[in-house]
Amino acid sequence: MSAQRGLEVLQPGYCGVRIPVMEHCRGASREVIRHFSGIDPLAEPERINEAFRKLSEALEIDLLWGGGLPERASRSGDTQSALGGEEIFDWSDGERAKKTRGGQDVVQWGIFGATHQEDGRHFVDIPKPASIDEALDFDPLRYFPRTVAQYREEFTASYASMLQSCGDTCLPIPHHYTTCFHWPLAIFGFELLCEAGMEEERFHKLMERFAEVSRRVATAWSEVPSLSGFILHDDLTMSSGPLFAPAWYREHIFCHYPAIFAPFKRAGIPLIFTSDGDCTAFVEDIFKAGADGLNFEYLVDLEKLVERHGDKILIGNINSGVVGHGSTREIEEATRRCVEIGSRAPRFVANIGGGITHDMTPAALETYLGVRKALCRSLRK
Q1: Given CA atoms 79, 81, 82, 83 in this order, what sign does their dihedral have?
Q2: CA 365 to chain centre
Q3: What is the pTM (predicted TM-score) of this model?
Q4: Which residue from 289, 229, 226, 225 is spatially nearest to 11, judged by alpha carbons?
Q5: How far apart are CA 331 and CA 259, in angstroms?
Q6: What is the DSSP letter of 21?
Q7: Which residues are bridge partners to 173 per DSSP?
Q8: d(CA 95, CA 113)
């Protein structure tokens, strides 16, 4: 049972017979799902949970990033589908964007659609501030007014659904995507965030308001019965590194982390922090704030992390670009490098940074799995 291995690696002192794996597999293509599960999710949407369970088993996923496996789905255009659930699309027509039944613009994300905008906005239902002043005066509680008790009720039901969707296949690790820095990025967009961040006094007060929402979310999640682990996410950096000077982050962002992390620490729930980009400059800040683990991209030096923080849960850092577009040899080399270095840390977890994406072919994933499965066993023997 991979779910049991997932539980074990979250605890101090783990050193099992196989290096565990965390993946985010919802972005897998129709071809990949069909190849590994034998089920065509568009032809048989009622079997989507079975398809993703079989995919997870084939990928030997122990920890599932961010939530549960899809449970119910309906094809785009099935306006009166009795199945309900998530809307799935046929992207084989080459279109790069489609509209949902509700008229929302989405781009491809596996067989699903993602609402993420090019300027970094995720909360597209919240009007983008029209000016810097409007951004700096933004009141998060107007859009996220729920109390800890209300969040706890929602999260308890959500976590039970996640567990049910996965069964013994893998252990779902829920997440909060907008820990701190990602709040203004997700609402304002990239350029307005950069402009607002230069007004440091007012921006600091804005971040205090955002941090209050995250504290409520963290407190509520920490009170969910039997929660095994949690992911806090903030895309702190780009591939080139931080957007602002490190001192700016410490003044306005990291000062809020200890209070947001604290509910999980008090409850004894292992906390994994995730950031895209090259977050090397902030590794020490993240662990100092109380994170038990770090999930990171290939841009972060795994060898240095193993040397300095080998006691932590280190999740990474296979290059998704190589798996998606590299040659067989490049995929093998990237996978081998990561697993061989990571194996020196007892709680290392193999992972493709950024998740399984629809540009990864069945052949490429077979190559990746061939190396990863062999090394994850042999290096622990």
Answers
A1: negative
A2: 19
A3: 0.95
A4: 229
A5: 40
A6: B
A7: 65
A8: 12
Predicted confidence at residue 26, as pLDDT, reads 96
Residues forming beta bridges with residue 98, ordered by sequence position = 106
CA angle 318, 320, 323 (to 5 degrees): 90
Q: How many residues does the chain have?
A: 381
Distances (CA, A) of 193 to 119, 244, 289: 10, 11, 24
Cα distances (Å, whole numbers) of residue 112 to 28, 86, 109, 357: 9, 8, 5, 11
Token match 């062999």: residue? 374
Q: Is 374 within 8 Å of 338 (Cβ atoms)?
A: no
Given the structure tokens 């020196």, which residue do they identify?
A: 344
Map out the domains of the chain as residue ranges. 2-71+127-378, 72-115
For residues 144 and 264, what is the distance between their CA atoms, to the nearest angstrom?
21
Query: What is the 3-state composition of the chain as percent helix, strand, coil, each rounded to the nearest 5?
Result: 45, 15, 40
Q: What is the mean pLDDT of residues 240-253?
A: 96
Phi first, then psi, for residue 54 (nearest 5°) are -65, -40
Write down the pLDDT at residue 1: 57
User: Is the Cα torsion angle 160, 164, 166, 171 positive or negative in sign?
Assistant: positive
- For residue 317, report the phi and psi dihedrals to the nearest 5 degrees: -135, 55
Q: Is 58 exposed, middle or buried (0-12, 13-18, 19+ CB in 10 A)?
A: middle
Q: In 3D, which of 85, 72, 78, 90 has the Cα closest to residue 34?
A: 90
- Residue whose tokens read 């084989």: 92
Contact in structure between 343 and 371 (CB atoms under 8 Å):
no
Cβ-contact 27, 357 below 8 angstroms: yes
CATH 3.20.20.210 applies to domain 2-71+127-378: yes
Q: Which two tokens stand for residue 285?
A: 């800040």
Distances (CA, A) of 169 to 6, 51, 58, 308: 10, 12, 10, 33
Tell me the pLDDT tens digit for each residue of 288-311: 999 999 999 999 999 999 999 999
Give yes or no for a cis peptide into 317 (omega within 30° of 0). Answer: yes
Q: Which helix (H) or strand (E) holds 237?
A: strand 237-238
Q: How far apart are CA 300 and CA 312, in angstroms?
A: 15
